Amino acid sequence: MDEPLSNLDAKLRQAMRVQIKHIQRQLKITTVYVTHDQIEAMTLADRIVIMQSGMIQQTGTPDEIYNDPANTFVAGFIGSPPMNLIDGTISSGTFVADGIRVDGLPQQHSGVVTLGIRPEDCTVGGAGAQLNGTVYGVEPTGDLTYLTIKAGEKLIEVKADRDYRAALDTTEIVSFDPKRIYLFETQSSQRLR
Questions:
Q1: What residues are paired with 96 via a beta bridge?
Q2: What is the pTM of this model?
Q3: Fewest CB within 10 A of the end CB: N or C in the chain?
Q4: d(CA 157, CA 81)
Protein backbone atom coordinates (compact mmCIF):
# COMPACT_ATOMS: atom_id res chain seq x y z
CA MET A 1 0.00 0.00 0.00
CA ASP A 2 1.31 3.46 -0.88
CA GLU A 3 1.90 5.98 1.89
CA PRO A 4 -0.69 8.83 1.97
CA LEU A 5 0.48 12.09 0.39
CA SER A 6 -0.14 14.00 3.63
CA ASN A 7 2.36 11.75 5.48
CA LEU A 8 4.93 12.19 2.71
CA ASP A 9 4.40 15.95 2.71
CA ALA A 10 4.92 16.11 6.50
CA LYS A 11 8.08 13.99 6.27
CA LEU A 12 9.47 16.13 3.43
CA ARG A 13 8.74 19.37 5.31
CA GLN A 14 10.45 18.03 8.44
CA ALA A 15 13.48 16.85 6.43
CA MET A 16 13.66 20.22 4.67
CA ARG A 17 13.64 22.09 8.01
CA VAL A 18 16.45 19.90 9.36
CA GLN A 19 18.55 20.44 6.21
CA ILE A 20 18.00 24.22 6.15
CA LYS A 21 18.96 24.58 9.80
CA HIS A 22 22.01 22.35 9.37
CA ILE A 23 23.25 24.25 6.29
CA GLN A 24 22.65 27.62 7.92
CA ARG A 25 24.65 26.59 11.02
CA GLN A 26 27.40 24.98 8.93
CA LEU A 27 27.84 28.07 6.72
CA LYS A 28 27.53 30.43 9.72
CA ILE A 29 25.31 32.82 7.81
CA THR A 30 22.60 35.11 9.06
CA THR A 31 19.31 34.26 7.41
CA VAL A 32 15.99 36.08 7.40
CA TYR A 33 13.28 33.50 6.82
CA VAL A 34 9.69 34.68 6.37
CA THR A 35 6.95 32.13 7.01
CA HIS A 36 3.34 31.87 8.15
CA ASP A 37 4.08 28.34 9.41
CA GLN A 38 4.63 28.47 13.16
CA ILE A 39 6.39 25.08 13.19
CA GLU A 40 8.97 26.39 10.70
CA ALA A 41 9.43 29.54 12.75
CA MET A 42 9.85 27.66 16.03
CA THR A 43 12.21 25.00 14.66
CA LEU A 44 14.40 27.13 12.39
CA ALA A 45 14.74 30.42 14.26
CA ASP A 46 17.18 31.70 16.81
CA ARG A 47 14.90 34.75 17.12
CA ILE A 48 11.33 35.26 15.97
CA VAL A 49 9.42 38.42 15.15
CA ILE A 50 5.65 37.92 15.32
CA MET A 51 3.68 40.43 13.28
CA GLN A 52 -0.01 41.18 12.91
CA SER A 53 -1.30 43.65 10.29
CA GLY A 54 2.23 44.99 9.75
CA MET A 55 2.80 45.66 13.46
CA ILE A 56 5.36 43.82 15.59
CA GLN A 57 3.60 42.00 18.42
CA GLN A 58 6.63 40.34 20.02
CA THR A 59 10.29 39.57 19.38
CA GLY A 60 12.26 36.84 21.13
CA THR A 61 13.69 33.36 21.03
CA PRO A 62 11.27 30.52 20.26
CA ASP A 63 11.23 29.59 23.97
CA GLU A 64 10.56 33.19 25.04
CA ILE A 65 7.71 33.55 22.56
CA TYR A 66 6.13 30.23 23.59
CA ASN A 67 6.60 30.54 27.35
CA ASP A 68 6.04 34.28 27.76
CA PRO A 69 3.52 35.56 25.16
CA ALA A 70 3.07 39.33 25.21
CA ASN A 71 -0.61 39.29 24.23
CA THR A 72 -3.51 37.07 23.20
CA PHE A 73 -2.57 37.23 19.51
CA VAL A 74 0.86 35.70 20.19
CA ALA A 75 -0.61 33.23 22.73
CA GLY A 76 -3.19 32.07 20.21
CA PHE A 77 -0.78 31.98 17.26
CA ILE A 78 2.04 29.88 18.72
CA GLY A 79 1.22 26.34 19.81
CA SER A 80 -0.63 23.42 18.31
CA PRO A 81 -3.39 23.41 19.35
CA PRO A 82 -3.11 27.06 20.38
CA MET A 83 -3.45 28.33 23.93
CA ASN A 84 -6.97 28.21 25.37
CA LEU A 85 -8.14 31.79 25.94
CA ILE A 86 -11.05 32.04 28.37
CA ASP A 87 -12.87 35.28 29.17
CA GLY A 88 -14.06 35.69 32.75
CA THR A 89 -13.65 37.82 35.84
CA ILE A 90 -11.07 37.89 38.59
CA SER A 91 -11.50 39.11 42.15
CA SER A 92 -9.39 38.49 45.27
CA GLY A 93 -7.14 36.07 43.35
CA THR A 94 -10.00 33.92 42.00
CA PHE A 95 -10.85 33.66 38.28
CA VAL A 96 -14.40 32.60 37.39
CA ALA A 97 -16.03 31.71 34.05
CA ASP A 98 -18.75 29.21 33.06
CA GLY A 99 -17.68 25.88 34.56
CA ILE A 100 -14.25 27.23 35.51
CA ARG A 101 -12.85 28.42 38.84
CA VAL A 102 -9.16 29.04 39.44
CA ASP A 103 -7.96 30.10 42.89
CA GLY A 104 -4.57 31.37 44.02
CA LEU A 105 -3.96 33.91 41.24
CA PRO A 106 -2.30 37.31 41.79
CA GLN A 107 -4.47 39.46 44.06
CA GLN A 108 -3.60 42.77 42.37
CA HIS A 109 -5.81 42.04 39.35
CA SER A 110 -9.57 42.47 39.34
CA GLY A 111 -12.37 42.81 36.81
CA VAL A 112 -12.77 41.32 33.34
CA VAL A 113 -9.70 39.33 32.20
CA THR A 114 -8.75 36.57 29.79
CA LEU A 115 -7.14 33.48 31.28
CA GLY A 116 -4.72 31.55 29.08
CA ILE A 117 -3.75 27.90 29.52
CA ARG A 118 -2.01 25.66 26.99
CA PRO A 119 -3.59 22.26 26.21
CA GLU A 120 -0.46 20.44 27.45
CA ASP A 121 -0.71 22.26 30.80
CA CYS A 122 -4.13 20.74 31.51
CA THR A 123 -4.62 17.41 33.28
CA VAL A 124 -7.70 15.23 33.16
CA GLY A 125 -8.91 14.73 36.74
CA GLY A 126 -6.42 15.49 39.44
CA ALA A 127 -6.59 17.37 42.70
CA GLY A 128 -7.76 20.95 42.80
CA ALA A 129 -10.00 20.59 39.76
CA GLN A 130 -10.57 23.90 38.04
CA LEU A 131 -12.84 23.03 35.12
CA ASN A 132 -16.05 21.03 35.11
CA GLY A 133 -17.50 20.42 31.68
CA THR A 134 -18.79 17.87 29.23
CA VAL A 135 -16.76 15.83 26.78
CA TYR A 136 -17.33 17.41 23.36
CA GLY A 137 -14.69 15.53 21.37
CA VAL A 138 -12.08 12.78 21.76
CA GLU A 139 -9.38 12.43 19.08
CA PRO A 140 -6.83 9.63 19.59
CA THR A 141 -3.67 10.25 17.57
CA GLY A 142 -1.44 7.41 18.75
CA ASP A 143 1.02 9.28 20.97
CA LEU A 144 -1.64 11.39 22.71
CA THR A 145 -5.36 12.08 22.71
CA TYR A 146 -6.84 15.48 21.93
CA LEU A 147 -9.76 16.08 24.26
CA THR A 148 -12.25 18.91 23.80
CA ILE A 149 -14.27 19.89 26.87
CA LYS A 150 -17.26 22.20 26.71
CA ALA A 151 -17.58 24.56 29.68
CA GLY A 152 -20.60 26.81 29.21
CA GLU A 153 -20.28 27.87 25.57
CA LYS A 154 -16.47 27.68 25.54
CA LEU A 155 -14.53 24.76 24.03
CA ILE A 156 -11.32 23.95 25.94
CA GLU A 157 -8.60 21.85 24.29
CA VAL A 158 -6.63 19.37 26.40
CA LYS A 159 -3.73 17.10 25.47
CA ALA A 160 -4.63 13.93 27.34
CA ASP A 161 -2.86 10.61 27.82
CA ARG A 162 -2.61 8.38 24.75
CA ASP A 163 -5.00 5.85 26.36
CA TYR A 164 -7.65 8.36 27.44
CA ARG A 165 -11.15 7.55 26.20
CA ALA A 166 -14.54 8.90 27.27
CA ALA A 167 -18.04 8.93 25.87
CA LEU A 168 -19.29 12.19 24.38
CA ASP A 169 -21.52 14.33 26.60
CA THR A 170 -20.18 12.78 29.83
CA THR A 171 -18.92 15.01 32.63
CA GLU A 172 -15.16 15.48 32.97
CA ILE A 173 -12.97 17.41 35.39
CA VAL A 174 -9.75 19.10 34.26
CA SER A 175 -7.09 20.78 36.38
CA PHE A 176 -4.62 23.45 35.25
CA ASP A 177 -0.92 23.63 36.07
CA PRO A 178 -0.87 26.71 38.37
CA LYS A 179 2.64 27.68 37.19
CA ARG A 180 1.46 27.79 33.56
CA ILE A 181 -1.59 30.06 33.84
CA TYR A 182 -1.47 33.37 31.98
CA LEU A 183 -3.66 36.43 32.49
CA PHE A 184 -4.40 39.01 29.81
CA GLU A 185 -6.30 42.29 29.92
CA THR A 186 -9.39 41.47 27.86
CA GLN A 187 -9.88 44.87 26.26
CA SER A 188 -6.28 45.54 25.18
CA SER A 189 -5.29 41.83 24.89
CA GLN A 190 -1.97 42.64 26.63
CA ARG A 191 -0.43 40.33 29.20
CA LEU A 192 -1.00 41.17 32.87
CA ARG A 193 2.22 40.75 34.82
A1: 89, 101
A2: 0.86
A3: N
A4: 7
